[in-house]
Design a protein that fits this description.
The chain is 38% helix and 15% strand. By secondary structure, it is an alpha/beta fold. The protein has 14 helices and 12 strands. The radius of gyration is 21 Å and the shape is globular. The strands form 2 sheets. It has a 7-stranded mixed sheet, with helices on both faces. A 5-stranded mixed sheet has the order 8-9-12-11-10. The model has no long low-confidence stretch (mean pLDDT 96). It has 2 domains: 3-243, Type I PLP-dependent aspartate aminotransferase-like (Major domain) (Aspartate Aminotransferase, domain 2), CATH 3.40.640; 246-377, Aspartate Aminotransferase, domain 1.
Amino acid sequence: MDIQTLCIHGCKDRYDNTGAVSVPIFQSATFAHPGVGMSTGFDYSRLQNPTREHLEKTLAALEGGADAMAFSSGMAAIAALMELFSPGDHIIASDDLYGGSHRLFHHISVKNGLKFDFVDTADIAQIEARITPPTRALFVETPTNPMMQVTNIATAARLAKAHGLLLIVDNTFLTPYFQRPLTLGADIVTHSGTKYLGGHNDTLAGFLVTADAGLSEKLRFIYKTTGACLAPLDSWLLIRGIKTLAVRMEHQQQSALTIAEWLSGQSMVKAVHFTGLPSHPGYAVSQKQASGFGAMISFETDNADTAKRILERVRVMQYAESLGGVETLITYPMLQTHADVPKTEREAKGINDRLLRLSVGLENADDLIADLEQAMEG
């Protein structure tokens, strides 16, 4: 079945007999047993809920996975994922990470005894050089947030398999519509469902998708024990959002390419980071492993004053955190998404006072360009 159809009909299970086209919102914390030792398949919503199950089966189908778990946020999903590991275990991660992941790893996971090395995972030699006997996993963002570095997933998967490591891929930026890491050899995919999967900047969600039943069993135990499950109403909002994922991603990507090309010709812009530009270092790898480039752009202005002027003067775009929704959002990573990353580390990656991140929405591309143009002019 084509992925566009899967977005609409990813789960065929029905949970009532009314003929409702939209899956009902089962707003119930608990479910009655039909008899002693008997169950309808649903006992308590922390374990499972029919609305959430519909969503999880849909996402598992989209990613080509064995199972998916829906969490209350993307960070709740990653926090639960870290419970797979024990004190002393070592994880190699991308050095250009979403600031929330950076904060979790440095301030929570390290406290709990995990050890990390952060490398440019686009360079497979850097990953291999850091593998030691306690290494248990590779944690990769691709493209990375916010510098848009691209890791070759299949190459990383072969390396992970050779050393008995789990390969975990954060697929938030491209979604399964454009990239399916499990089919390239990854073991676990994570998403902030708040972003493109939800698509409307109206709810928080996170996902873990697994490639095999053994991993699913381990993660399901953690899931029910720690309890950060997605509520029924939020599950329904994600189901609704995914139905338009294909059309949104296509439109947003085309607009992003138009805007990235325009930005590349502006004298006040010194660098544009968009994987859909042939000049991007990860362009060839992206073409090979993904069916699209997404709609995230980072660009560096000529000075901090220009960056601040753009943020303060945009009228169609909105200066706000998050990404992936129908509204175009512009973000100042050094003050928002990556504020908790130490300044020296942040600036070494290029996350400085001149860098802006743009999540292109569904507005007309010409209107967005006109908005940037008037903001730059001051």
